[in-house]
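User: Can you write out an input/output pair for a complex, sequences first and structure second?

Assistant: Here is one pair. Inputs:
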Amino acid sequence: MPAGPHQLDGHRIAARLGAALPGVVMRATDEWVEVAPERVQEALRWLRDAEEFDAAQLSNLTAVDRHTHFEVVYHLQSLDLNQQVVVKAIVADHEAPSLPSAYPVYKGALLQEREVYDLMGIRFADHPDMRRLFLWEGFPGHPLRKDFLGIGHGQTSGLQRFPNEDLADRDRMMNAGNLTSQEMPREAGGSMASGGH
Amino acid sequence: MTTVNEPYVLNIGPQHPSTHGVFRLRVVMDGEVIRDLDMIVGYLHRSMEKLAEERTYTQNIPFTDRADYLAAMSNNLGVCLAVERLAGVEVPERASYLRVIFAELQRIASHAMANGTLVSDAGAWQTPLLYMFREREKILDLFEMTCGARLTTNYMRIGGVAFDPPPEFWSALQELLDEMPTRIDEYASLVVDSEIFLARTRNVGVISAADAINGSLVGPALRGSGVPWDLRKAEPYCVYDRMNFEVPVGRHGDVYDRFMVRLEETRQSVEIIKQAVAQIPDGPHKTDIPLALRPPPGEVYGRVEGPRGELGFYVVSDGTPAPYRFHIRAPSLINLSLLREMAVGVSLPDAVVALGSLDIVVGDIDR
């Protein structure tokens, strides 16, 4: 399974977190626990200070655009207990997304939240320095959003974006039994994208 | 007579004073003391994460070379391990050993660069740097011998490595391993006993262990503060669980400790490579995977201990041949979280050394 070797079961975190802070847990899976977006700071602080979890370090903070909403993902790490806790928060407002900052709990969120704001456009309330990080002030839009290049709603950017490609044909070529990435028959010459000549 | 000190703004960069890349600091100075600091990055932003969403998983490996261009092997390894876990691809044992050998060679090369430029930041203009480049050059030759490239190696593949090293690689590697310990002693004698170097680095840029953890510092920046956290020990990947090595840590969390941690890690890397060379089995160096690899829908956060610390790849799959989301957790960027706190109140030359000791690579910051 994709879960990391020392990643804790989301159900277990949810049970303890939910008991300590009623109403904070929205959903739990084997891999992560989803918390109420407006209480994310509170939940992170509890996980950091709880002896059982000891999530002392915010190792990674990022966001995923799901077309209708954003998912903000926190990978927390306990260095003493060597275990990983994954927390998610759903930002429902796709037009003007905002979420409480993790900075008061983890100073390591300073630049990571600026990066998320720059590329995804999610504002973090209480962040001491909510400016763009890589792009300049005035840059139009937030490029990691799925609709950034004017792709219609419901469509995914990605390989399907190339409109003239015959998808079924390409998939057949790519998945043909004995064709593997490292041993493409060169004499078949460029048949991969165009469907063969 | 009275003098009036007015704060003034000083721009450092976009060229970093010692060629770390295109990185700009805007500092507010009061005499020689820094009152405020703002870093301006993004000059090398190539939107790798967006580009990744339009390419297959294998097509994304060469991008990672260009993220942290001083540690291409480690980046290759990180993305391959993440995607392999997501897609459930098995890696042949020989490939895992080759990955360890190349990742550790890369660590030696990268630490040589980091320590060389740090010493150069501290005022020892170029001589120690070029001594350290001598061995780095030999490592790059080994890379070239194996995969044809020196910096942007693109060597790892999902399911193994691209090529088995040629026969002459092993003798050249042995030669390097034999002379490395003496060379490391030589670097140490050049720098570590120098009174000037000690004066420039001791008790400069001090980060406490608690701050380092809370500020998400990783790698030598975290271990320099005395926290023995190394993913090769904590979450062994490839065959690190079969290797016998130490995790060096500092005591004071100053620039000197971070320098020494890197120097000691170089020694440990030599030991790891020796063990890997002794243990490496024969066999295939890659498994074949479908050209359009379609990992099942799901997500993975794969990470390795790169030369700069935890290098993570958060990959979300929606079942198509291209990742739905591809995030690189860049240690160079996140290690800068405490830069402002480190720099405010100290003199400008000390801040430059403190920045150098964090070992940033601007390609990794900006991606």
